[in-house]
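Notebook, bench 3.
Goal today: get a predicted structure for Phosphoenolpyruvate-protein phosphotransferase from Bifidobacterium jacchi so we can plan the truncation constructs. The sequence was checked against the plasmid map this morning, with no discrepancies at the termini. Length recorded as 306 residues. Pasting the sequence as submitted so the record is complete.
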Amino acid sequence: HAAKAKELRGKPGSTKDGHHIPLLANVGKPADGKTALEYGAEGVGLFRSEFLFIGNAEPPSVEEQTKAYAELLAQFPGKKVVIRMLDAGADKPLPFLTPEDEPNPALGLRGLRTLRVHKEVLEGQLKALAAADAQTEADLWVMAPMVADAHEAAYFVKLGKSFGLKKVGVMAEVPSIALMADQVAKVADFVSIGTNDLTQYTLAADRTLGSVANYQTAWHPAVLRAIKLIADAGNANGMPVGVCGEAAADPDLAVVLAGIGVNSLSMTPVALDDVRAELANWTLEEAQEKAAKALNGEFYKSSWDD
Ligand code: PEP
Ligand code: MG
């Protein structure tokens, strides 16, 4: 099994009947690009840019940021690299940006909401990304976290393009953006679904709280139905929809996501072998049949049942 998985490493992610589902890597710092490539990632689906900001008393300079982004991009000439804008707040508080007195930080100032009130940070990061893009040959996609609807998506896309970025999209982590997916698909170049937060917010269960950890599973049919709303809107409008949350790293769930109509999957590099191997066992039609069952809740077991 492990041997077979390794054998597939040089090949792109694909169903048994040859439908290409690019398998990308989640990375946390530029040096991790090497690990991603070793595991056969076809690109980067989520670069969490927080590492540049965490542990510092103030935001990094545009020059510092440009250097870090260029270091990542230079490892992926001709390949897709999705960089996420700073996701400060909630489970990733930053002393100089995140208010300390929020009663519910997950429902507070985080992600794009934080960037909007700290415009100098938002614009500095966009400037650095555009500069790094100009220096390198990767196919750079830039997205914002914690976007609630098409208004916020339009705001970010317009701003990103004004800095010269070519592909600008949003993460889907809040149920409201799934409900408005048809409108979002008209303004964003792409959507990447963050199933960790989408699960937290769909089920109203804090992802950091052990007492409600049972809710933190994207196998819940409500989460899968939210994902389907986004995938359907994307496919109807020719807008790529990926998944970059933990759900993509579960081989069985990855098959379901492909069956729902998600176009690419991004995960921690060590998960790539198993996901690639499992996808290769299913035709697209079989994956769609499995997805229909999953959307009906057939694979979900509530902790309230005995
Ligand atoms: C997510 O929410 O699924 C995600 C990919 O982002 P993070 O885990 O960094 O919040
Ligand atoms: Mg998130």
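The chain has a mean pLDDT of 96. The radius of gyration is 19 Å.
Flagging this for group meeting.
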